[in-house]
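REQUEST FORM: STRUCTURE PREDICTION
Request ID: SP-0412
Submitted by: Lab K.M.
Chain count: 1
Length (residues): 225
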Amino acid sequence: MLEQIPFGTNDFAENPEPRCPVVLLLDTSGSMSGRPMAALNAGLQTFKDELVADSLAAKRVEVATISFGPVQVQHDFVGAATYQPPTLAASGTTPMGEAIVLGLDLIRRRKEEYRANGIAFYRPWVFLITDGAPTDSVHQAIAAIQEGSASKAFSFFAVGTPEANMEVLAQLSPDRPPLVLDNLRFRDLFVWLSNSMRSISRSTPSTEVPLVNPAAPGGWASVSV
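STATUS: Completed
RESULT:
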């Protein structure tokens, strides 16, 4: 696990900008070994580079990363400026349900910290990437996502490689169809994610921000049917 400098209350005093939190839930099970994991790690570095290239996003975007295979908090929320992408390794099974529940708990706790310190925030994003099927129960995760989506507590996104179980991803993300990642285009995925975060960070909290459709012609994804 990488050592990173988490935000604390002192950081809120030094940087009172609204926060745009995103949790990355990343499948690191054994099936991701080789080229997929190398592409994912390279994509994370691209994500970092794109965020820090934007001075406002660097102040407002916060990133937390949880890997699953087994479940591990790679780092809690850190600002984009101090975010250091972890170098992930593939091993184990796919405890997706546990990872999702843990990610949603990180969101809940971070929002409590924002409120306690008078920091405005945008609707958090939960971004799941997988190449397989869960090896644990996802019933609790499905219920928590449905409740959180209905109350607009967060926005949930699910992305699978062509080998992923898209039926399960559709159950997890009923309001937003899961996306199929084309040809391991992790770099393009993370460029899209960073651009989306940059757009949101320039908006006013609680307002809708139009996003580029990643499944449009030439995009990095297609919609599962």
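NOTES: Residues 123 and 153 are 7 Å apart (CA to CA).
Reviewed by: T.R.
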